[in-house]
Design a protein that fits this description.
With 344 residues, the protein is mainly α. The protein folds into two domains: 25-48 and 196-329, Cytochrome Bc1 Complex, Chain D, domain 2 (Orthogonal Bundle), CATH 1.10.760; 61-190, Orthogonal Bundle (Cytochrome Bc1 Complex, Chain D, domain 2). It contains 14 helices and two strands; from the N terminus they run H-H-H-H-H-H-H-H-H-H-H-E-H-E-H-H. A two-stranded antiparallel ribbon has the order 1-2. The relative contact order is 0.16. One of its GO terms (molecular function) is heme binding. It is found in: Periplasm.
Length: 344
Amino acid sequence: MIGAILAIVSLVVGSFLLYGNNFSNEQAFADYGRSMSDEELRSFFEPLGPVPEPEDNPITEEKVELGLMLFVDPRLSKEDQLSCLTCHSPQLGYADNLTFSVGFDHTVLTRNTPSIINTGYYETFFWDGRADSLEEQSLGPIQDPNEMNLDLDTMIEKVRAVEGYRPYFDAAFGGEISIDTVAKALATFQRTINIDNTAFDRFLDGEDQALDEQEKFGMELFITQDCIECHSGPNFTDQEFHNAGVNSGDPGLAEISGDEEDLGKFRTPGLRGIIYTAPYMHDGSEVTLHDVVNFYDRGGNGEPNTSELIRPLHLSIQEKEALVAFLRAISGTPPEIEIPSLPQ
């Protein structure tokens, strides 16, 4: 009897270690049962390519240098409290690793901070798509009363008052110091924060051994379980808006469009660099990538307007681990920046 009880206890403990918190990494998977060849896997994806540049704002070294200075300068906020860097730290995946962003006078905002990694590849900006260009997006947080809380006229007066900025505006924009050139400099800098050389990219380029079998199995699941329906294209986003079933009460796109059918819809985020940008979802409600996989495996959280693309997947532990491994393989390493001394 005692032996039987001990055997049951051992089975329960072993099951917890295997299936519990974060799907134990110690589980050995000898055979993943992958059905697609390497070439078949590659056929579903395409290389990232160079970041798009607007005709009226091509990338130059001078703009990048100026944009970085403006990005880290708290004088672009009221009372010099915050800079763009406050919520977009290079050490934190160019986000802040908080559930909700924190703005002016410690105001807790209502959404998770999106990373600026590969943001130059987006077609619309912010979670709800309210900006149509990176230049427009760059000015949004500055003038938002809950974020940097500085009207744009006052902002440009403050920048013009800094004598040390003039040579940089001379080099980048022929001396024009305006709201438009500030936006263009900030946008140009952000277009340089890209991840484009991951293990996934090397595999896509023909290096079969760049991904191991677990990662390739995860890549296959990414395709067959329809993750690719929304996270498609070279930046892993369809550039569209979907209700993923988060059930946060946030109207999302509907607040911009005025259409009830858009309730709870948010822009599909790209996935490059994803291991650095926890927590996840627009409300930061999923703490780890394992939590995200579990969320989609159960078909969301029951939000009434959930997309028909979201459905229970019934994944095994092996499959969940493989998906997380693939997400790590597409994450790469964010570029480092050297924080400059600010002009005086």
